[in-house]
Amino acid sequence: MKFTDFGFDQRLMEGIEASNYEDATPVQEQVIPFILSGKDIIASAQTGTGKTAAFLLPLIHKIITGTYEDGQITAMVIVPTRELAIQIAQHLEGLSYFTSVSSIAVYGGGDGNAFVQEKKALSQGADIVVCTPGKMMAHIKMGYVKLNKLQYLVLDEADRMLDMGFYDDIMFIIKHLPAQRQNLLFSATMPPKIRQLAKNILHHPAEINIAISKPPEKIIQQAFLVYEAQKIPLILQLLSEKKFKAVLIFCSSKLNVKQLTRELKRNGIKAGEIHSDLEQENREDILIQYKSGRLPVLVATDILSRGIDIDNIDLVINFDVPHDGEDYVHRIGRTARAEADGTAFTLVSVKEQRKFLSIEKLIGKEVQKMPLPENLGEQPAYATSFENKYSGKKRKFYNKGTRKK
Ligand code: AMP
To answer: Are residue 149 and residue 261 in the same domain, yes or no?
Structure first.
């Protein structure tokens, strides 16, 4: 489907062309007509599907073709992390470049200056505000945020926001919004708590389901069964054997991020780290260096696993097995973006084998297990023994009689 089919305003079409978008993605094709018609929606769509433009484009169109009072906030997009807020604000700036839409990103971690600027924008009004829940709540409590004319509310990555404990903050914000408004909820997964949230805030929503809990086929997925102590030496060896343009390594804890980055640097590898202990300014600076190619290796917590849009990553390494299948899909989905190819290695310790098997079940695929380089010593036993050792026993116990041979 072409963008011209939506009947978008010419000024918006120019932004779409300048962004080099030709055809609408499936999520855009399904979501945009509902948003234009004024309906609430609940959409399960992951990052990488074009979901951001799926809500930004119709919002921009409505704002530039409708009549809205100056000095007010017309639309609010609530997102889980500052990185995502910044990225959406940039995306918005690109798409609305040829229009007069005003926007501001409001997120935690900035300095006093940022707060003053945000305060100014929020009290003077902006067409679209992109914000993280905690920071927006803090501003609302100060009493100057112009919310009484708000017409559109977007909750992006709603499952992530609930996982991060933002439910109360979101409900606080919603209590301060006019009851008459259009609500758009996007979530990668649809657990019961998201259904409950949807029930509380959406009005007869259209339901759109484009979630694919499967990574793109073109990503080469491989796993190494290792003992914990072999993880860092293996990464050093993998990085020395083949040249990669941009490598993203995920760890499940800040501690691991710090330790691994230290070891990489000690071995002469230019690596940066991103986790929540770092100041916002440092995080942004490291991301810029990484995006520009000056820093070839980035080690991060899951803070970077969703929504972050860097095109040229050709290797993702899971230093730890992610918590669940969705996180796995999000992490490895950072590679092989657009037309590029990508590889994803997962290091699976003995303790993590069970978690990894459940991920394989979710993605419906057995990930190829790779032999360790000889100099790293023996590797732990393979998943077949795992079947017998853990899950076989358990299943037999719980599902006696129903278990298929
Ligand atoms: P998202 O799922 O919103 O994170 O978008 C993923 C990437 O797809 C971003 O780099 C967008 O700029 C890009 N994108 C979104 N819509 C389109 C489209 N219709 N054609 C080409 N690229 C797109």
So the answer is: no
